């Protein structure tokens, strides 16, 4: 994962893994999918997959998704990436459309919460 300043990509609280909003940066910190929300969403979910794996979890552990996007028209492409990542697993999902995100390159940001168990 690319390093970020001022916070961690994820934290564990009890049996929960809280994943910070992920954007379309590759492991070296380069932007992926300029102007293409579907390509960005695919990278976002690759990043989420890496974070889940580091915690010993996978997509089926996710119990909540929040998606933030800047353009309603990007919804179908972002949804396709989400469904490709989760397969038949359908955790609760909330979506927001906003005027902008942290950088002008960012069309979509996704955060998740995963259940790791009681141990």
Structural commentary:
The protein has 119 residues and is of the alpha+beta class. It has one domain (10-115): RutC-like (60s Ribosomal Protein L30, Chain: A). Helix content is 25%, strand content 27%. The protein has helices at 37-54, 75-86; strands spanning 10-13, 16-22, 62-69, 93-97, 108-115. It has a five-stranded mixed beta sheet, with helices on one face. α2 (75-86) links the parallel β3 and β4 (93-97). α1 runs parallel beside α2 (75-86). It is globular. The model has no long low-confidence stretch (mean pLDDT 93).
* Sequence of strands across the biggest β-sheet: 1-2-5-3-4
Q: Count the helices. How many?
A: 2
Radius of gyration: 14 Å
Beta strand count: 5
Number of domains: 1
Fourth-tier CATH superfamily name: RutC-like
Helix coverage percent: 25-40%
CATH 2nd-level architecture: 2-Layer Sandwich
**Roughly what is the average pLDDT, rounded to an integer?**
93
**How much β-strand is present in the residues?**
25-35%
Order of helices and strands: EEHEHEE
Structural class of the secondary elements?
A: alpha+beta
End-to-end separation in angstroms reads 26 Å
Regions with little confidence, pLDDT below 50 for 5+ residues:
none
Please give the largest β-sheet.
5 strands, mixed
